[in-house]
Design brief:
Layout lengths: L1 H22 L7 H9 L3 H7 L4 H21 L2 H4 L2 H12 L3 H10 L3 H10 L11 H53 L5 H55 L9
Length: 253
Amino acid sequence: MNQAAKLVHLATAISLTTFAPLLYAEEKPPAPAAADLVATKNLIDYYNAGGVMMHPLLLALIAFIALTIYLFIVINPARMVPKRLVDGVNRTMASRDVQGAYALVKENPCAYSKCIAQALLKVNFERDLANKASMVVGAEDTLDQEETKVMGWVNYLNTVSTLAPMIGLFGTVQGMIVAFDALAAGKAEPSDLAAGIGTAMITTAGGLIVGIPAMFFYFFFRNQLTSITTEIQKQFSYAIDVLSGEIQLSSGE
């Protein structure tokens, strides 16, 4: 039944191609009808036509969307280094209220507060500049750990952006193998090759559709994280300088 349907379609296409220009010379060729047929396809049709490699591409798309939403939430200046907390820490540092500063950062967990908490554990007013060198080292080590932890999630986007085009390329090769198998079997009509070529093109497009935005957001979040960690380092260095007495806050600060 399937073979018969193919023959009917082939015969119809040949008939229209051969006789339509003679019978309806004044009318347009039947190409718009084929365009209308293509226009009626929806995403599910294209997904099914893409073959088995569309399943891992779908998983890659889901991973990309989930990672992007998560990173938009996590890599946020208001979340990682909130200004209200920074101002509060600076005030307690100016009064050398170590216990108050430590309680404040523990009540507001974030990347900045973890750095300050680690620095406060190194405070020693009996040493030069309240043991500033050890405080800076402790804060910087904590910041490196926080940056590495978040960067691990950003790197997953890089993984998706690399794998998605590779999966699409595998589908391309798979589709071309199907097309060449049809040629080897003596099936040289366009309709015989359409399925394999269609699979190749759809999987290629699918891989790029996932890979290109994933690569964009990888660089976006990487740069955003670098900018925020630089701001955190600037702020905790300032707070430590205030505590050590190297910077004196005015009454308005």
